[in-house]
Every structure is written in structure tokens, then in C-alpha cells.
Amino acid sequence: MNIYVAREGSEVPVGEPLAPETGYEVVCNVGAPDPRSLLTPETGSAFPGEMLPSDAPELQAVLYVRGAPAGRAVRLQVPARGDSPWIRLPLPGQPAGTAVHAELTLYYGVVAVHVTAITVPVGGPPGRGRPTAKALYKLSRSFSGLGRLASRRLSVLVSGEPTSPALQVNGMSFAPNSISVEAKAVDDAVFAARKHLYRMQFGEGPVSRYSGSYGKSYDALVADLRVLANLGARLYDNLFPRPDVYTTMAELVRMEAASHVRPPILQVVGLGERPAPIPWAVLYDLPLGGVPSRYKPCRSIAEYGPGAPGSSAPARCPYEADHRDGDRWKPDQLCPWGFWGLSSIIEHPPYVEGRDLEHVVEDGGGGLPVSVLAVDSSDGLDLGLTRRHFDALTTRLGEAIIRPAITTLEGLCAELAGETMDVVYMYSHCGYDMAADGVGYDLYLRMYGDTLTPADVNQWTRTSGWPDPHWPRRHPLVILNGCHTTETVTGTFSSFVRSFANRAQASGVIGTEITMEQGLAGWAMELFLTEFVHGATVGEALRDTRWRMFARGNLMGLAYTPHCLAELTLRRALRMESPWY
């Protein structure tokens, strides 16, 4: 990717502050490294001619200035051989004494595959500043294999500026829209969503409100749905206040389900170190008023809720026609398919450096998939529940899961050093390490009487036992099954997702957004791992897990977030007869 800033029509890059109120252009192409480019090629890299895509994908480039599209999308054709043509995107004139903050995004279909931040000073004497650029996000290093992403019908980019986040929304017709979101409002909404999920589980005390089989009655489920839908609808309305975007997004989800008879895949990408932590799974996209008691329960709640046989939920609500009045949605319709986490597969692909994010944990390997189970052996967990969970996993997965004799963090490091596992499953408590000034916090896992932090994962490169780089060939899926293991707010300092996905080179990370009751958390991941090891993708397995939990009146599946590609799968399926309940 080559990018530079020039005057309109010029091929000479600007090396000083821009003239005020003067039109410039951002110029870019895909090809051999160009000396004019503001992006520095990766150290030691050459143009990967052998990796050029054979399918010659057509990309669309959009320049966002301060969060809003600066003009129309421009087509960029990547050839099978040689460099792409240069394209030019207008950069509007700006007043003196300012700095333009722009983002150039390349899309394949609706999927963002490359995002570059550009900062351009305006006004001032020569030599007092020049345009700079930094890659914020790369889903593909070589722009090859993009056809696998064609199934997406909606993408949302969340700005990397936590003080002023913006959502860049793109739908099927390729009409990117930008929506500003107040950071405090996001944090307030996140807190409210997590609080409601917590109260559905524990009420006002520490004892779980779910039954011994982690279920609730039909009436209790409807009550939970009313509360969560009210919150999800308000959050959806605040995030997408423009009527055209609000309606288009809700319709796109259902159009995809109807036309392809499968759940749509929605891509949500967080840019930068600390993107806005929006609870996407609880968004509710059908129009609701402010009085939950007036919401009319859909017949599907009884059909797929408590007492249901547990069959897989269809891609769309079988009673969708009941919710419509012609071309309009009836108000106050309480339908499970109104929640994004139940209607769709939501993927949160993290930014990884020096490689493409994996679709397969290990392509070309043989033998059974292997899941390494690391269990906190301290007194922080109920040992009876731990034993029951381990026995259930052994029954469901058989030879595909091993529990090595680990007693220390050093022992865990040594176990992870070998590239022999497809899944790394950590089952433990997760706590907060608050900053001294109370501004932010770090998370830590309690493991073997010690603590494991994201910084520990990063710094294990300096210890013996886990080579640097970690997992260079086989990139396991990491599951952190504990309380709020992937929770973030705009003040969070570090992240297990960034540490495991980027520094350790995992193919993805799955974690929780809230405090979870130990037995319930174990049951949720028993459901997920059974399906994933049997050959389902991460997206399919997690959506089906949520619906299987829904069948018992349980909504806690919405608290699990996958940070990986939706199609991520093992190298091959394990075939075995095993009950799913």
C-alpha cells in the first residue's frame, strides 16, 4: 500500500504543511514500494509478487476526514500481476492552524481490509510539519484470498479515538456513512448493558437466579427479554440516529437471511489501541417504545425458548410477517431475532501484524484436534464445579482434549511453547488491577496461585520456555473462560485480545464481557467446544450455543465475544457420537 498527499493533479508529494483553504488529494495504489509513500514497508520485506491475488479483486477506497466521508468511493482494481493504477481522493481545503485527521479505508465489498490514519498539518512555516501516515488495521497483508469475505453484508468501523469515537457504517449498496458517538455515552451504555446481563444472572446478590440446569421459566425469560430489548433498542437508536441508516441496517440483516437462508455475518472492527467498547450482541433493531410491559412477545419465544426441543434456530424469525404492517414494522414487537447476537454472526477481527488473520487454525495438519485445558488450581474456584466441567469436556471431546499437569505459570509457559495445540482453554477467575489514579485498569487471570496479565503474555518473549515469536506456524484459538476476560471501557490500559492475537499470534480470542457464575460459564463453553471441535466455524458454534442456552431461558450466551474471523475453523472435524445437552 502506497499513500502520499499532493496538490490537485500533481504527482509530487507534499513535504510541508498544507496551504490553508487549498485543495489537495490523497494519492494511493497497491504495488511495489514507492519512495513517495508515507507508509514504510515492513522491515526486510520486498513486494510479494508471488502473493498477488489471482482473482484480481476490485476494492473501493473511501477517505474519511474527521470521521465523515470526504467524497464518493473510488474504485481500485488490484491486478493479478504488476501494480494497480494510482487513484486520487479529494482532500478538502482546511483553515490555517489546524491539523487534518483522516482515515483512508479500502473495502472489499463491505469489508474493511486496510485502514490508514493520515495526519496533515495546515498552515505555518515550511519545515514545521509534514503529512504522516500509519496503518491502523490490516485484515489482509497481500490482498489475496479476499473472496472468502464476500458473504458479509454490513461492516462497522469504530474509531480509534476514545475521546471522540465515530462509526463508519457500510452496507450492501456501498454507501458509507459516518456517525459521531460521544465517548461518555458509549461507556454509560456499556455499563448499563453489562449491569442488566449481570442482574439477569444474579439479581442484587451473589446467588445465581438460574436453576440448577442453568434455566428459567418462559415468563422469566420474557421478563429478561423485555428489559434487555428496551436497553438494546435505545442503544441502537443512539448509535444510528439517522433514519436511513437505522432502517437500512435492520433490513439488510433480514434480506441476507431471506436470500441465502443463513444468518448474515456482520463485521465490527475496532481501530487503534482503545476503540469504543460497544456491546454489539445486545443491540436490538426493531422499533420499541419506552414501556417494556407493552412489548408483544413473538410466538418464537415459546417455540425456541424453555421447554423447546433444542433444535438449531433458523436464519430468520418464522413469524416475521406477524411483526410487519405492509412495508413497515409494527411497534413494540419483542422478537429474539431483533437482537444482533441471536439473528446474526458478529465477527470482531483483531488487527495482527506481519500475517493475515487465519481462517483455519492449522491447514494441512493431521490427527485429532487438540485442546489444552489450563485450570486454575487455587482455592478461587469451586473444585466440585471444576471437576464436573472437566468430566463433561472429557466425555464430549474424548481424545481431543488434554489436561496437562501444570502447577505454575512457568509450567504453563513451557506447555504453550510447543506448537501442538489447536485450542488453548483457560478456565479461571479474572480480576482488576486498578491504576493508582483510578483512571483505568488492567485485567489479570488468577492461575496457580499467581496472576497472569496481558503484559506477562507480551513479556514472555524474554523468558525461556516460549520462543520468540510465539506460535509462528500453528495459531491456536485462545478461550479465556472467566469473569469479564475481554471487558474493556475507553480507559482500559491493556487487553488480553491484543496480547494473545497480536503478540502471541493466536488465530483469535474468545472471552466474556461480564461476571459469570462458574458452573454456567463451564456449561456455555461445553456447548461451544463440542460444536467447534465437531467442525463448526467459530461464528456458527457461538450462535448455536446462544440459541441452545436460549432454549433453557438463558441469555448469558450474549456475554461471550469472539475476536477472530467468523469462519475460523479447525483443520478438520472430529467425528464422534456425543449428546449436545
Architecture overview:
This is CHAT domain-containing protein. It comes from Sphaerisporangium dianthi. The protein is of the alpha/beta class and 581 residues long. Helix 9 (496-503) links the parallel strand 25 and strand 26 (508-512). Helices cover 24% and strands 23% of the residues. Mean pLDDT is 81; it is low at 43-53 and 572-581. Helix 1 packs antiparallel against helix 2 (218-239), helix 6 packs parallel to helix 10 (518-533) and helix 10 (518-533) crosses helix 11. It is globular, with a radius of gyration of 24 Å. It has helices at residues 183-202, 218-239, 243-260, 299-304, 340-343, 383-397, 409-417, 454-459, 496-503, 518-533, 538-550, and strands at residues 2-7, 24-29, 58-65, 68-69, 74-77, 87-91, 98-108, 111-122, 132-138, 152-158, 166-170, 177-180, 265-270, 296-297, 324-325, 328-329, 333-334, 345-347, 371-375, 401-402, 423-427, 430-434, 441-447, 450-452, 477-481, 508-512, 560-563. The longest helix is centred in the middle third of the chain and has 22 residues, at 218-239. Strands 3, 4, 5, 7, 8 and 9 form a 6-stranded antiparallel β-sheet that branches. Strands 20-19-21-25-26-27 form a 6-stranded mixed β-sheet, sandwiched between helices. The chain folds into 3 domains: 2-146, Immunoglobulin-like (Sandwich); 183-347, no CATH class; 371-563, 3-Layer(aba) Sandwich (Rossmann fold). It contains 11 helices and 27 strands.
Briefly note the structural class of the backbone: alpha/beta
- Estimated radius of gyration: 24 Å
Q: How many domains comprise the coordinates?
A: 3
Helix content: 10-25%
**Overall mean pLDDT score?**
81
- Distance from first to last alpha carbon: 49 Å
Question: What is the CATH first-level class name of the largest domain?
Answer: Alpha Beta
Number of strands: 27
Shape descriptor: globular
What is the count of DSSP helices, taking H or I runs of 4+ residues? 11
Largest sheet: 6 strands, antiparallel
- CATH topology tier name of the largest domain: Rossmann fold
Strand content: 15-25%
Low-confidence stretches: 43-53, 572-581
CATH architecture heading of the largest domain: 3-Layer(aba) Sandwich
